[in-house]
Write a structure and sequence with these properties.
The complex is a heterodimer of chains A (about 80) and B (about 400). Chain A is mostly helical. Chain A has four helices and no strands. Helices cover about 40% and strands about 15% of the residues of chain B. Chain B has a seven-stranded mixed beta sheet with strand order 4-12-11-10-7-5-6, with helices on both faces. In chain B, strands 1-2-3-14 form a four-stranded mixed beta sheet. The longest helix of chain B is centred in the C-terminal third of the chain and has 21 residues. Classes of the chains: A mainly alpha (about 80), B alpha/beta (about 400). At the A-B interface, helix 2 of A face strand 6 and helix 6 of B.
Chain lengths: ~80, ~400
């Protein structure tokens, strides 16, 4: 299994408890529109991701991340050096 | 042509729906006459003011007013210029000296509003490769200061010391770090655990800015704010404040002991590229700040008011933003915007003005009736206020009739 697959599996796992709508999640799923997350949910989710991967996702980076796939790509870059 | 206003349609519709229900517009009230810091005439009715941030009641202080009138006579109605060109008069220097004395700090810089103080200081001192770590519930002026600059922005959960520490530890070695906190968070009226947060920030090599807009004049032995009350003001690098609350006029400032602080006057765009405050405003501010140094009795009375209102509202059955009164702000949590607007209007009919606050200004999508007390509210007025809340609460079904 590649890095990306592993990261993606973990991200999907962490989304699940916050996926109150039970939406099906793919790389194209958008956090705001499809999962309908508010800012507090996003904050909690980002904190969980940061702890899990031991990385920092600044608000500047968050502004560029709209979909699950974009998050996985960003995590792949952030963890590459570790 | 694409109508650039199309993006506002959802808000226009929400507003129309609210007003169609027959409720008075909570964001369009006119104070027809103002009798004192605690009473105004609204819609022809005598109204107790409980949503003004006029914590120390300085707006009608005779010394303050006399100073303003004299400055108007002596220096004219306005400076028509930037602080760094023709806009620094003796009064601007005098109010900066008053702030240095009030806070016992080496430097003070006065901006035209409190909003611009946060905008200017934050955007200027945190540059492209620096990190700003801030509480998620920070005021709009703090977020806008972040947006105006180019720093990396890292939010943490409200008042969570551990979350702050974790984020500080993840910042790359050697990067500049600014932690931005508030003494009192104005929506719920809760205070920050500054003692722990400042310690954690310093231990991780960060500079600390604390916005004490809602605590100045009232909290701490000398009224210097929550950082003073919790004994950490000496470790705070920058305190930002405003003249538009306890000081009773308009303007903003930053005080600091940083040895290079004065250079900000040349590099801070929201300081340079705007006109300075009118002479009458800085004269009223200087007089007021000096009087606030010696206001221990008023501080004590304001605490009494806050405790009494908090306990009374709780007894009536209202849900409040904090379990204990922590500041001069008491937030009453409403179930939704419709009920909040109905309750706001019922209170206004009773003769009481409070702030209706709603998302996005509020945390967690809450609708709040925000009450801010004044040191000049009499014991009798606080009793009247509680009577009005009881009547309005029952009329709108917010509380049951038995209490």
């Amino acid at each position: 299994m590649s890095d990306r697959q592993q990261i993606s599996a973990k991200v999907h796992q962490l989304i699940e408890p916050l996926n109150k709508k039970g939406a099906s999640v793919t790389d194209a799923t958008r956090f705001a529109q499809d999962l309908e997350w508010d800012s507090l949910t996003v904050l909690d989710f980002v904190a969980t991701i940061e702890d899990e991967f031991d990385v920092m996702i600044t608000m500047n980076m968050q502004a560029e991340i709209e979909t699950v796939g974009q998050l996985v790509d960003a995590l792949q870059r952030l963890t590459a050096g570790k | 042509m694409t109508d650039l206003f199309a993006k506002f349609d959802p808000l226009i519709e929400q507003r129309a729906a609210l007003l169609d229900s027959g409720v008075a517009d909570p964001f369009n009230l006119v104070m027809e006459r103002v009798e004192s810091p605690t009473v105004a005439i609204c819609n022809g009715r005598r109204t107790i003011l409980l949503g003004t941030y006029n914590y120390m009641g300085m707006t009608f202080d005779p010394d303050v007013i006399a100073a303003g009138k004299k400055a108007l006579d002596d220096y004219g109605s306005g400076t028509t210029g930037s602080r760094v060109l023709n806009g620094t008069y003796a009064g601007h220097r005098a109010v900066e000296q008053a702030l240095k004395d009030f806070y016992a700090m080496d430097h003070a810089m006065v901006f035209s509003t409190g909003y611009q103080a946060n905008l200017g200081v934050i955007s200027t001192i945190a540059g492209k490769d620096d990190y700003i770590v801030l509480d998620i519930d920070s005021h709009a002026s703090i977020y806008d200061g972040c947006a105006l600059g180019n720093a990396q922005i890292v939010p943490f959960r409200h008042n969570d010391v551990e979350a702050l520490e974790k984020r500080l530890k993840r910042i790359p070695e050697g990067a500049g770090k600014l932690v931005v906190l508030e003494g009192v968070y104005s929506m719920l009226g809760d205070i920050a655990p500054l003692k722990e947060m400042v310690a954690v920030s310093k231990a991780n090599g960060a500079m600390v800015l604390v916005d004490e807009a809602h605590s100045m004049g009232f909290i701490g032995e000398h009224g210097r704010g929550v950082a003073e009350a919790q004994g950490v003001i000496g470790d705070v690098d920058f305190i930002v404040g405003t003249f538009s609350k306890s000081v009773g006029t308009v303007g903003g400032f930053c005080v600091s002991n940083h040895p290079k602080f004065e250079i900000l006057r040349l590099v801070c765009r929201p300081y340079v590229f705007t006109a300075s405050l009118p002479p009458s405003v800085v004269a009223t501010a200087a007089t007021s700040v000096r009087k606030l140094m010696d206001s221990a009795d008023k501080r004590a009375h304001l605490w009494e008011n806050s405790k009494r209102l908090h306990a009374g509202l709780r007894q009536l059955g209202f849900r409040l933003g904090t379990d204990e009164p922590q500041s001069a702000i008491i937030a009453v949590i409403m179930p939704d915007l419709e009920t909040g607007a109905a309750m706001w209007e019922a209170l206004l009919r009773e003769g009481l003005y409070v702030n209706l606050a709603r998302p996005p200004a509020t945390p967690a999508g809450m609708t709040l009736l925000r009450c801010s007390l004044c040191a000049l509210h009499s014991e009798g007025q606080v009793g009247e206020i509680l009577g009005m809340f009881a009547a309005a609460g029952r009329a709108t079904g917010c509380i049951s009739g038995v209490n």
